[in-house]
Amino acid sequence: MGNGSSVRNLGQSLARFSRWSTRALTCGSSSVVRSRDGSSDVDYEDHLRRLGTANDRMKQYWKNDGCPKAKLKHFRNLGCLARGTFGIVHKVQHLRTRKEFALKRQFKEILRRKNNQTRPGVERRLQWAAKNRFIVGLEYAFQDSQNLYLVMEYAPYGDLAEAVSRSPLPEKQTRLASAQIVLGLEFLFASGICHRDLKPLNIFIFERGILKIGDFGLAKAMKKGELTHTMLGTERYMAPEMFSSMGYGTAIDLWALGVLIFECLYDENPFTDEQRKQLQCKEPDRKVSPGFPSDVPRDSPNRDFLCGLLELDPKRRLGVGGQDFRALKEHAFFRGISFERVYSHELTINVRVEPVKPKEPTQEDREWPQFDDNYDPEEFPLFD
């Protein structure tokens, strides 16, 4: 499978969760919020109206790129969060503002060897353009002679992967988590962005149980109805159409959402290894269906919702077609959940967690390497 992102195991090195609270959480009474794109305050209804122009705004941000630059010396290294094939993720603090960030440092030499000079620029442009309260924000991007740097919002409580690795989430918490992810995906779809690696590891947990979609290392900008053929991603979340010769579109993210929610609810993948082999063929076995636990009623909203997302035909998948995300949000699975309150962060997941503790930096880590600024701006397209 393609990798694409510099660090694939970020979430595996993050927070250890203690337990999930069952008490309801409210975070204020107003549904009016400040949008990340710096525009005037928008409420949920304005958000829905703005989805119609999200793709135009994304193109504008891509074209008139204004991502702030910085230098490594502007940040203090607070420790290592993760190491991967392509680089390191550090927890850092901006020396002037004192604000904490996650800094992804990608090694140019390894990217050259892997012939992967293009994808970092696409990742950086898409994440900068994807300005939404349910998307991890990119704050700075810069490079020197040896590395590429992405400075992003820091998720102090890690990712969703650790939570589901311990035990299934309570149903109410899963529904609230899913609602936040749906709002993030709704924005990405409206913006013409296919994530291509949606999974618990790439859902990050912020203060007050706010969830955001992150890691755009495999993301792609796609026109409405466009199909692509590149086979990449994380195998257990990949939709069947990715293995066909017909191509695939943004509906693959809805399949991945179905797998993600299934794992949160039932602590297992909806398909066995053998079933996944049957699905990952040019002509998948149409008889394969999700394996629900025996105590899940056949007429339950959970089963109907997940079967809709895990529909083999991408054109019939829940969330695709005329109603798009309205069909998702109005499904009985979300009965009793106000998406307006989810959007305003009045309703979030409830967690009692320990903040992430990065690996203590060595003396070498504390002293940032000094690389010069002499580099070819054309070598890594779109990054500058």
Note down, in words, how this protein is organized:
Keywords: ATP-binding, Kinase, Nucleotide-binding, Serine/threonine-protein kinase, Transferase. One of its GO terms (molecular function) is protein serine/threonine kinase activity. By secondary structure, the chain is of the alpha+beta class. It has a domain of 193 residues: Transferase(Phosphotransferase), domain 1 (Orthogonal Bundle). The chain contains 12 helices and 11 strands. The strands form 4 sheets. It has a 5-stranded antiparallel β-sheet. A two-stranded antiparallel ribbon has the order 1-11. β5 and β6 form a beta hairpin. α2 packs across α4 and α6 packs antiparallel against α7.
How would you spell out the order of helices and strands?
A: EHHEEEHHEEHHEEEEHHHHHEH
Q: Helicity range of the residues?
A: 25-40%
Strand order of the largest sheet: 2-3-4-6-5
Give the structural class: alpha+beta
CATH superfamily of the domain at 160-352: Transferase(Phosphotransferase) domain 1
> Can you give the mean pLDDT?
86
Biggest beta sheet attributes: 5 strands, antiparallel
Q: End-to-end distance, in Å?
A: 28 Å
Per DSSP E runs of 2 or more residues, the count of β-strands stands at: 11
Number of helices: 12
Overall shape: it is: globular
Provide the CATH architecture of the domain at 160-352.
Orthogonal Bundle
Rg from alpha-carbon coordinates: 20 Å
> Would you tell me which CATH topology of the domain at 160-352 applies?
Transferase(Phosphotransferase), domain 1
Low-confidence segments, given as residue ranges, are 1-35
Beta content: 5-15%
What's the CATH class of the domain at 160-352, please? Answer: Mainly Alpha
